[in-house]
Amino acid sequence: MFNSFAAPPVDAILALSQAFRADQRPGKTDLGIGVYKDSAGATPVMRAVKAAEKRVWQSEGSKAYLGLGGDETFAQAIDDLVLGAAVDRARVRSIQTVGGGAAVRLICDMLVEGGAKTIWVPSPTWLNHIPIARSAGLVVREYAYLDHVTSAIAFERMLQDLAQAEAGDVVLIHGCCHNPSGVDLEATQWTELASLLSKRGLLPFIDIAYQGFGDGLDQDAAGLRHIAAQLPEVAIATSCSKNFGVYRDRVGTAILLGQDAAGADRAKAVLLAKGRVNYSFPPNHGAATVATILNDPTLAADWREELESMRKRMVGTRAVFATALRQATNSDRFDFVSRQKGMFSLIGLEPAALQKLQSEHAIFMPPDGRMNVAALRETDVERVAAAIAAVA
């Protein structure tokens, strides 16, 4: 049987990572893989995470299962972080998941069981969104999001596309720091989008994986909170990989907002059942660590301070890099980099140019040109800018 399997499609990001590791050239630069890196090029363990892990280790008295929904104190703390005071908690239900990707999958499975057939996703979107949705049985349709000429949101085209959606369709929305474009909706656009969703009877499914990386924790959740307050039903997938730096611990949540408590309970029961046949029980260590931080004022304050310093570093890197690109190219072609938010930008280079970056300059980016700005070290800014100018 095993010899009969066809090779699955190559994952562009994982293939890039393998090629980077195999490259022996000094000074090589990986701007593809989506992890935060500090100015030295390391992905550090945050101070509050280290302190909380020690507490968890010292206080843990059992390795028994917590339940299908994982750590309830963790899920409630994430509810507070994401939703704030936007909605009545009587209609909110949430569970711990194995990272944000599992939250997306479980929600898709739940929506299919509820009768959903079509999901609208932004073009472009995170590499895994479409495969996950299709694997769950949803028909995927795309709506315009990025204007590749201006590197801004194609908002009127977005509204036109979503006006074709039918009642009951699901609309996937990035909560902030859009992956891969780095272009976010403005407050007035969130308001217009919420109105369209409500009028057409569409179900918003918000994936928020980078809260705190754009404008700040509350600012980054403002659009999500507006939709949650305006729509009767909302699904939300969250991740702690980036803003807590617990990538390998796989910490996420699936949050559901029902029309009322009874509806939310039924939806949560389906979500738990989907998790049961997928991975059964989620792991505890990372979620317990995050819960310890969020429920301790001192640790939470230290986490917020370090997260804010990470955010400011990305803002500063964008500004410096945009300036270097302007000087290297003698044009404003890449000025959009400084206006975008979060870890990523679509740099706008053709595949042949990206291949030259890799082969001639040891700079690695995936075929779509998604650049991880957070992986750009200060010492590499001018070299990378000059290389882009040479191949552009």
Describe the structure.
The protein is of the alpha/beta class. The chain has 2 domains: 26-45 and 299-391, Aspartate Aminotransferase, domain 1 (Alpha-Beta Complex), CATH 3.90.1150; 55-297, Aspartate Aminotransferase, domain 2 (3-Layer(aba) Sandwich), CATH 3.40.640. It is built from 15 helices and 13 strands. The chain has helices at 12-22, 47-59, 72-83, 99-113, 129-136, 155-162, 187-200, 217-220, 222-230, 261-278, 285-294, 297-329, 336-339, 351-361, 381-391, and strands spanning 29-30, 92-98, 118-123, 139-144, 146-147, 152-153, 170-174, 203-208, 234-239, 251-257, 344-346, 363-364, 370-372. A 7-stranded mixed beta sheet has the order 2-10-9-8-7-3-4, sandwiched between helices. A two-stranded parallel sheet has the order 1-12. It has a two-stranded antiparallel sheet with strand order 5-6. A hairpin with a 4-residue loop joins strand 5 (146-147) and strand 6. The model has no long low-confidence stretch (mean pLDDT 96).
